[in-house]
Request: fold
Amino acid sequence: MYPAKFTYHAPWSVEEALGLMAEHEDSKLIAGGHSLLPTMKMRLATPAHLIDMKNLRSLLSYVHDKGDHIAIGALTTYQQILDSSLIQQNAAIIAQTVAEVGDIQVRNMGTLGGSIAHADPAGDPPAAILASDATMVIQGSGGERTVAAGDFFQGFFETAVGAGDILKEIRVPKQSGGSSYQKFKHPASGYAVAGVAVCLTKDGSNIGSVRVGVTGVSDGAYRASAVEDALSGQAFSEALAASAAAHAVEGIDALEDPFADAAYRGQLAKTLAKRAIIAAWNNA
Ligand SMILES: Cc1cc2nc3c(=O)[nH]c(=O)nc-3n(C[C@H](O)[C@H](O)[C@H](O)COP(=O)(O)OP(=O)(O)OC[C@H]3O[C@@H](n4cnc5c(N)ncnc54)[C@H](O)[C@@H]3O)c2cc1C
Reply:
């Protein structure tokens, strides 16, 4: 299938890209193209202007140590993340999660910024963004702003990145404890039927801080705060992990599709949450 006709642009600066978006209301940015191109080919998206960010890679593809956090440029590919020792050592949950995305071709082209700006409800990276408590840097016509992970994902393919905005950077606080991402893949697409990312710290034999991000289950990724509340400050045991994980879909309307009904998806989320809590504790 071929996409509808569009005019192609390849700006050399963020300002030029912002100007093109302001000039052409019916425009779309393209990063790795691994979500946008399929939707264009299916004619689910028919932008009249395509703004390719390939010439912005030298500006927006990087991993930097910023002291208390790791700054990841929005155009950094999954493979560059997996190759980064800075991320492996300081923001392991991001690497653990992107390792589960697609296959080698997808990981060579897809970008972290593209994934979270797209916010596919079955996408893996949003779970890690929530569990790591990352902050997103967005530039629009009114200047630059930062948005906390908790305010970034706003529902079905909806985020704080508005029309005319560019997501520039993802800031991931350095991790001090353990983490794990557990996923149940759809057998055909490989996307998450359910995926759970956990970051936690140890306080002796107790759990210190804990954040749990869930994807695949609802119309957008979410923090499982009832699981976090059940774990925080408690003495760790596998029984505690299981009883806390039972809250993984509390207050959530689980998605249904021909592969997984809501009850099955919910059960997967609970099982994966338990596994992720135990694995994160064991590597803390
Ligand atoms: C065969 C296949 C298998 C896949 N499997 C998985 C999987 O298992 N798990 C998973 O999570 N994903 C999977 N994906 C999707 C993949 O992760 C995509 O790469 C990702 O969702 C989007 O990143 P991208 O760089 O390709 O973005 P694009 O497709 O280029 O863009 C996606 C959307 O985000 C917008 N956008 C992109 N970058 C920015 C930016 N910096 N600022 C503002 N808006 C921006 C675009 O305008 C577009 O609307 C798969 C894709 C394919 C083709």
